[in-house]
Design goal:
The protein is of the alpha+beta class. It has a single domain, classed as 2-Layer Sandwich (Alpha-Beta Plaits). It is built from 4 helices and 4 strands; from the N terminus they run E-H-E-E-H-E-H-H. A 4-stranded antiparallel β-sheet has the order 2-3-1-4. The chain is globular, with a radius of gyration of 15 Å.
Length: about 120
């Protein structure tokens, strides 16, 4: 980005699931609760060790773009609704344009009302 471009920090919370139906269900739950402004789903291949054996699985990465104030509630929702015994839950900072950051913030403005 240009040196003069002002940026704002938001967060991206990611997890993975096995099916499109699971990804859709999590994305809709997160958006209905207004805990993220946007949820993106993308196919990936995961390589990992599970219960002593190497695994290779096709999964879907679910990436939730959110504001810092919503992270605790978002993580709680994902833990409660996740189909995996041990879900990956990762939080990463993102630098975004001021305009995108303002849009994201506005999408989540009623999150506290949605959780009440």
């Amino acid at each position: 980005m240009a040196e003069s471009a002002a940026l704002r920090e938001i967060l991206m919370v990611t997890t993975t699931v096995a099916t499109e139906a699971e990804a859709r269900r999590l994305a809709q739950s997160v958006l209905q609760a207004r805990l993220a402004a946007c949820v993106q789903v993308e196919p990936i291949t995961a390589y990992f060790r599970w219960q002593g054996a190497l695994q290779e699985d096709r999964e879907l990465r679910v990436a939730c773009k959110t504001m810092p104030r919503a992270v605790p509630a978002l993580l709680a929702l994902l833990r409660a609704q996740h189909p995996y015994t041990l879900p990956q839950l990762a939080v990463q900072p993102l630098q975004v344009s001021l305009e995108y950051g303002a849009w994201a913030d506005a999408q989540m403005a009623d999150a506290s009302a949605a959780l009440a």
